[in-house]
Amino acid sequence: MTSSTLLILSVLVSSCLSISIEIGNLQSVAVNGTLLCNDKPANNIKVKLYEEEAILDVLLDERFTSESGTFEMSGSKSEVTTIDPKLNIYHKCNYDGICVRKISIMIPPEYVTNGEKPARVYNIGEINLASKFSGQSTDCFN
Ligand SMILES: *[C@@H]1O[C@H](CO)[C@@H](O)[C@H](O)[C@H]1NC(C)=O
């Protein structure tokens, strides 16, 4: 193969890739809230916003809670169907085992906006991480 054929091929491949990525409607979502541990603000807690996919979830945003335990995240993604965003919280409140405790919270579809800017914020309110959650698991890779 000549180098010009290779160039044409790689241009073709990359344009196909970018087309497939842009298929669907651009949708956006925002989430915020306050995390507590034993009624005190839980600061520096890792929170992640994911789009749930069949194979591998796509990370949309990642933050740490503030001094007062608050956080706010947002992200957008193109999908043919409505996106399935979820919030993951990774904490060690009342937990001294290995790794961290993970809490997953699905964001309702009513809070997904068509377009780049989220029209509303899904406010999870105050969550006390000391509580027992049914959706809680241990996570070592985050
Ligand atoms: C979350 O967002 C709502 C709406 O923008 C706002 O009123 C509220 O104060 C925010 N909460 C936090 C903890 O940032």
TrEMBL record:
Q: What Pfam families does the database record attribute to this sequence?
A: TTR-52
Q: Which domain of life is it from?
A: Eukaryota
Keywords from UniProt, A to Z, are:
Secreted, Signal
List the Gene3D superfamilies hit by this protein, alphabetically. 2.60.40.3330
GO cellular component, alphabetical, reads: cell surface; extracellular region
Where does it localize?
Secreted
Signal peptide, first to last residue: 1-18
Q: What is this protein called?
A: Uncharacterized protein
Q: Which organism is it from?
A: Caenorhabditis nigoni
Phylogenetic placement of the source organism = Eukaryota, Metazoa, Ecdysozoa, Nematoda, Chromadorea
